[in-house]
Known about the structure:
Blueprint: H1 23-26, E1 41-43, E2 55-57, H2 61-74, H3 78-84, H4 87-93, H5 101-110, H6 112-115
Antiparallel strand pairs: 1-2
Amino acid sequence: MDHTGGVSVQEVPLTASSRWSGTVDAMPASLADLAGPPDGTVELPGDLAWSGRTIFDLNDAEQRYLYYMTVLTSGITSDHYTRWLNADVLCEEWSRLRLPRPLRRIWQQRFPELAALVV
Length: 119
């Protein structure tokens, strides 16, 4: 099962009107470019964490999950991803994250290694 509700991420079309259509341009060329913090307490800026929690303890599994969901779903610039996401942690969390299907598709198409992590 692909953990996206039974629909393959390749089947979900991405249209120009999609909320996520600008994500591709903001994504880094490589996961290695994701140099964000791997642990510790982090305060996200208001343009990312504009609703609710802004401070996250990345050593706490629940807060780390919320942090990654926040950055991935609210990120719109390259800096949002490269500054706030960590490649190793993203890979560890990837199969757990409940992302919108189009957003998951975009990330897995850019980085096939993420798709391989979903079991």
